[in-house]
Amino acid sequence: MKIIILAGGPEERQPDLSLFAGEKAVWAGVDRGVFYLLKKGIIPGCVFGDFDSVNSSEREWMASFNLPSFEYDSEKDKTDLELALEWALGQKPEQILLLGVTGGRLDHELANIQLLLHGLEAGINIEIWDRQNKIALSAPGPHIIQQEPEFSYVSFLPFNGPVTGLTLTGFKYPLQDQYLPMGSTLCISNELVNKSGTYSFSGGILMLVKSHD
């Protein structure tokens, strides 16, 4: 099972939702993300939020769909997205995609990226997608990466401390047993030269970003 969560980030930053047409996925909406889904004709399986980002007429229209809802007060210790993600993790899916979580307020965007840690802890693949990027975290070990022509740039960044033993094969700029400290831009804008490549590392947490211009 795949769960796709759409939050209320700027609509112009969202990936094209038609890319997911025909997929067997459970949709969830967070705050204004519910409004975006319904506008696209996608009925979410459940919705989350305090809905402070929709006006009264939009909220009334959303309520007409009688969606299963988890509503929260605006004053709480977790964001609406984190609460939705906790629900999604509890469903034990194979993958969770987070959409509409970049752009807008920088504090929210940075916190949303940090939420990817919950996936590593639970052993569930979580990725952030927007119109220009795909973001994921990797634990130490060997990994295979597939070329995606529409996301030609591949960048590796240390996430919460230095990464040790980073080795890249099948890339334009290969590496062997490289130490990657926090603040390094060494691994920005690499490219795969074949349909697939590999990366491996021995310590730390690595953030993988696929991007296009």
Short summary of the structure?
InterPro entries: Thi_PPkinase, Thiamin_PyroPKinase_B1-bd, TPK, TPK_B1-bd_sf, TPK_catalytic, TPK_catalytic_sf. With 213 residues, the protein is an alpha/beta fold.
Walkthrough of the structure:
Residues 141-207 form the Thiamin pyrophosphokinase thiamin-binding domain. One of its GO terms (molecular function) is thiamine diphosphokinase activity. It comes from Fictibacillus marinisediminis. 20% of the residues lie in helices and 33% in strands. The chain folds into 2 domains: 2-131, Rossmann fold (3-Layer(aba) Sandwich), CATH 3.40.50.10240; 137-211, Thiamin pyrophosphokinase, thiamin-binding domain (Jelly Rolls, Sandwich), CATH 2.60.120.320. The mean pLDDT is 94. Strands 4-3-2-1-5-6-7-13-9 form a 9-stranded mixed β-sheet, with helices on both faces. The protein has a 4-stranded antiparallel β-sheet with strand order 8-12-10-11, with no helix packed on it. It has helices at 32-39, 56-63, 80-90, 106-114, 117-122, and strands at 2-6, 25-30, 46-49, 69-71, 95-99, 125-129, 133-138, 141-146, 153-158, 163-169, 175-180, 196-201, 206-211. Helix 2 (56-63) links the parallel strand 3 (46-49) and strand 4. The protein is of the alpha/beta class and 213 residues long. The two termini are 31 Å apart.
